[in-house]
Specification:
Two copies of one chain form a homodimer. By secondary structure, chain A is α/β, with parallel strands linked by helices. The first copy, chain A, is 29% helix and 25% strand. Chain A has a six-stranded mixed sheet, sandwiched between helices. A six-stranded mixed sheet of chain A has the order 26-25-16-17-18-27, sandwiched between helices. A five-stranded mixed sheet of chain A has the order 2-1-5-3-4. In chain A, a hairpin with a 2-residue loop joins strand 8 and strand 9. In chain A, helix 6 (239-246) crosses helix 7, helix 10 packs across helix 16 (579-591) and helix 12 (498-521) packs across helix 17 (603-610). Chain A starts with a strand and ends with a helix. The interface between A and B is large, with 44 and 43 residues.
Chain lengths: 614, 614
């Protein structure tokens, strides 16, 4: 008889076929367990906990991703574990694949399309004994004659397919050849069928998320967009962990690079298939990311980026052949990387500033791009100073007891009304945890209700209890066990602990320190700020008044705040579509002064103050 | 008891260890049998004939390289064959590895060195909190300050190692970094140790042979040179065969490309090791070859090259990254390919004309580059017209009964004195066959002695005999069998057959047709030729008066002939060392008019006449 498996907290139960793994069983029962490696024990993403029952012995793969303690507590890789009897299996939130909200959109800045790669439809007469011109020369002549465009170079990979591409579309009546030629700065980088359009891809390569935009180059129109997790996350949540891994050996660096390259290739194919196009139509690409993501994507050395004084290998904008990165686009496609600013202020920051046009604004403007690393720029009458703070992944729900990413079931809004809690969840489904905006709401509500004092200490309250010596505030009560209730995804309480408060204080302290130090080095006061631009996915969902309440944002009237969404992605799109914007980004990056926080004499005192709530 | 193996005609005999192949046994006995694949049955080079004895059954590999007839006649791959009893094994000349004379030298044209890639020694101060410039920016700044050189781009593969390269040589006293930067047209293409010199590689990629020259770029000095067989030869002797193979499928095309790339990588390493350098010091390379070799080396399509009207994919000069071809040189190294002229007049012809400076000569000059394909240029008061003729491999000893390549034991000079034959062999060792220059001498001597009439028919003569209905002239008599005489490499007679005469007539007819047609289309007569330049390895060894005697060369006084050696290789070297010469080659190629022989109405009549001797 097949063992019966209970998956918690999703509440699915069913038989596991003989010799099937827990992951296979979960799939059969419709429980989504993350698997980046396809179930071969190589990604460490499908961790589950055997709460009750008997399963196969731990494998070497389990030992690689789990500590002996964790294994003793019943943690296993679902893809390596075969149940030997009925089991109760807990699927931690971080192993669930429930679709996560991936904000990729941002405020579009209108721009006149003027892409670097342009296409021309040409008609060629086939060779004859009277006309023995080579294929490449014949094409260049036609381009000159028919479009007055000079292309003296042909990319090697285009040359490798030129003869068949030219002969692929023959006019039945005249016998002439028709082809769409894509050129970029005097080089032929692609040959497309006559009716195909050249496409571009803009990528915002975040530490946690990747946002991708497929663009029709000639019109600048976005055809499709998609957000996905950065698969490197399996190898470290923040850039420090990934730099450390990449420096272990060449193989690890290569692995991290290939993970992202593979994800970009996949998303390129996926976006193209949505609009019935081929990835081979993508002739240009713009990538932005923080300096570490930028370096890892290019396969650049990161050791010097991880050691003081944290210098990048390169900051200037780069143009490289897509094939040199392992990308499968048009044969001669290029990838443009916007300039980095400093070790921890990357091309994504330059892109954000490009999209928000902050450099052109008068007055005092603060721009904050909130992520695992948060970059902040203060524009003081057009003088730009930027800094970076390690805000950590708390705003993305990590390192918070019941934190989770912004997926279905995450509490994203919360109010304390008397002793009652009112909340709303993503997807309107029963709550399973707290995402970033929910966490900020909780902090603000607890502070306003006096449950937290300025130091963040949790006071007595009917909903406060102590478990194992740690105080916690019960947001959502336990539910009684209802066996067989498949729609019930949660059984335990959802709480916010004293430790969670500390995590948030560290994150908000880091960010607020950056803001304060930028103001003080620019000789400005908080009340002089005319405008605050909040960028990033988390930034668009955050309740600004909650963020002001806890002191994450400076206390200014709400109308001065502008939540602009994924401005880095929008900047990447601008640079993809407009040659002028691409050039502007390089000028912009060179205008940005960099403030190194950790080295500043006032850092510690400012940070201590910034940790306080209110 | 181990079987006893007799290797013929080299006369080696010894025991073959149990389970050892014939190739392994040959190696033990010091008999060199060609093996390109390392003895895994993949190159078909180690063909031997089992004359007597018993061996293992034919393998699938044997069947791939040998016809059923050949297998029935005892032919086998030595690397796939294990003797089961005493054997007598004939090693055909073409399977012997006896070192071949590989002429690589040619007349040097003096030129002021001005290479595209230049190097600069720079000193850098390491980063500090006050100086957070990225590695690449720091390098560019130092290059500008210390040498007034602007390099705005850094090759991606250089960037991938920039951080460690910069930190590899630290001055003990000052703590500053020292590095030699190699730039090319504003791009950093290599970072070398301070004391290393940037090197260049010039390659003449022939259908049969590859000549390689390692050059010290700054001085233009040739440090080392080497000739080797083109390993593609295992897959077809002439370009037509290789084009046909490449067009069978993508894998075959890739195989042909990789064979040459592998050979170039090997020769680069070998030449560098001779001068205690590393292949990673090679920052620039120039390759010349006929259009088919050029296309196969680059992985370009050749189908259209093999079909009328025989158009190349590209004729203009190309610059590609060495890594895009699979070459292991400096990380950002480039390969320059001189321009092709037409389908069967390649970059090697442009290089030959560059080296011989034929375009600058007054009067009427004929330049002939003899190879498997022979290219001929007629310079008529500076107006250049070129053509190509399929002279075939007869001049390299192939398709001639006792023909062989120019290796030890080849008869290279021969005179008929009465009924006696006087000859000299390469290496002064006992004769084993005839190489190209020997073959031309034989033809001339037989014609002068009246053994051959103008039509090439062999007349009666004391040394003429008939075997199986075919007349043959005995050049060297059989030797009696002398068992155990290891120094004796030959036992059978060396003859020149009526069929050999026909092969030669076809080759010389093709070449002479080219000469005549160039003259007639230019309105010139033979006696108006002021100078004849003979290029190519075979061309340097040929006896010019013999060649005139048989009508291979036009009847002119000997002092008008100039044997210049490997002029194509010399041209490649010029383009490697001098930017001006590289540009000149492009201009030169565009000035060359192409004469297509086969399509010409006078072709057949001219060819019939050109076949005649005298």
């Amino acid at each position: 008889m097949s063992p019966l498996i209970d998956f918690e907290p999703v509440g699915r139960r069913g038989e596991c076929p003989k010799d099937e793994t827990l992951q296979g069983c979960a799939r059969l029962l419709g429980v989504g367990i993350t698997s980046l490696c396809g179930g071969i024990g190589k990604c460490g993403q499908c961790i589950v906990q055997i709460v009750d029952g008997h399963v196969s012995a731990p494998t070497p793969e389990d030992a690689e991703y789990l500590t002996p303690d964790a294994i003793a507590q019943g943690y296993r890789l679902a893809c390596r574990t075969i149940p030997l009897a009925d089991c109760r299996v807990r699927v931690p939130l971080e192993s669930l694949t429930s679709p996560q909200r991936m904000q990729v959109e941002g405020e579009e800045t209108p721009v006149a399309p003027d892409p670097l790669a342009k296409s021309y439809l040409v008609t060629l007469q086939p060779p004859s004994l009277d006309d023995l011109r080579a294929d490449a020369g014949r094409l260049a002549n036609a381009l000159q004659e028919q479009h007055h465009v000079t292309a003296t170079r042909v990319d090697l990979d285009v040359l490798r397919e030129i003869s068949s591409s030219l002969r692929a579309h023959i006019d039945r009546e005249s016998g002439s050849w028709r082809v769409r030629v894509v050129t970029r700065e005097g080089e032929v980088i692609g040959l497309l069928p006559p009716e195909a359009s050249p496409l571009g891809l803009a990528i915002d390569l975040g530490t946690t998320k990747i946002a991708a935009y497929l663009v029709h180059l000639a019109s600048g129109r976005t055809l499709a967009s998609h957000g996905l997790m950065n698969p490197q996350i399996a190898y470290g949540e923040d850039v420090v962990a990934r730099i450390a891994l990449a420096e272990q050996d060449e193989g690890k660096r290569s692995l991290l690079r290939q993970l992202v390259v593979g994800a970009v290739n996949e998303v390129a194919t996926e976006l193209c298939s949505r609009v019935e196009a081929e990835a081979s139509q993508i002739v240009d690409m713009v990538v932005v990311g923080n300096t570490a993501m930028h370096h890892l994507f290019l396969g650049l050395p990161v050791r010097q980026l991880g050691l003081a004084p944290y210098v990048p290998a390169v900051t200037s904008a780069l143009d490289v052949k897509a094939r040199d990165l392992g990308l499968q686009l048009a044969p001669g496609a290029y990838v443009h990387l916007l300039p980095n600013v400093a070790g921890y202020v990357g091309a994504d920051h330059a892109a954000m500033l490009l999209a928000t046009q902050i450099a052109d604004l008068r007055g005092v403007v603060l721009a904050i791009d909130i992520g695992t690393n948060t970059e902040i720029c203060l524009a003081n009458e057009g003088v730009l100073t930027s800094t970076s703070c390690a805000s950590g992944p708390a705003f993305e729900g990590a390192h918070i007891k019941h934190g989770m990413r912004a997926a279905n079931g995450a509490i994203e809004r919360l109010r304390l009304v008397g002793d009652k809690i009112e909340y709303q969840t993503i997807g309107g489904v029963p709550p399973v945890g707290l995402c970033g905006s929910g966490i900020v709401d909780v902090m603000a509500q607890l502070f306003l209700a006096g449950v937290l004092d300025r130091q963040g200490r949790m006071q007595d309250h009917p909903r406060v209890r102590e478990v194992d010596g740690v105080r916690e505030f019960v947001l959502v009560d336990e539910l009684p066990l209802l066996s067989g209730s498949a729609s019930e995804a949660r059984r335990s309480a959802i709480v916010f602990t004293q430790q969670d408060v500390r995590q948030l204080q560290l994150a908000k302290g880091a960010m607020r320190t950056g803001i304060e130090m930028l103001l003080s080095t620019s000789g400005r006061k908080v009340e002089e700020i005319d405008s605050v631009i909040i960028a990033g996915a988390f930034g668009s969902y955050i309740d600004v008044s909650s963020a002001i309440t806890i002191g994450l944002f400076p206390r200014l009237s709400l109308e001065r705040f502008h939540q602009v969404g994924n401005a880095a992605g929008m900047g990447a799109k601008l640079a993809l579509v407009s040659r002028a914007k691409r050039d502007a980004a390089q000028v912009l990056a060179s205008r940005i002064g960099y403030l190194e926080l950790a080295a500043h004499p006032l850092f510690s005192a400012t940070f201590a103050q910034a940790m306080l709530l209110g």
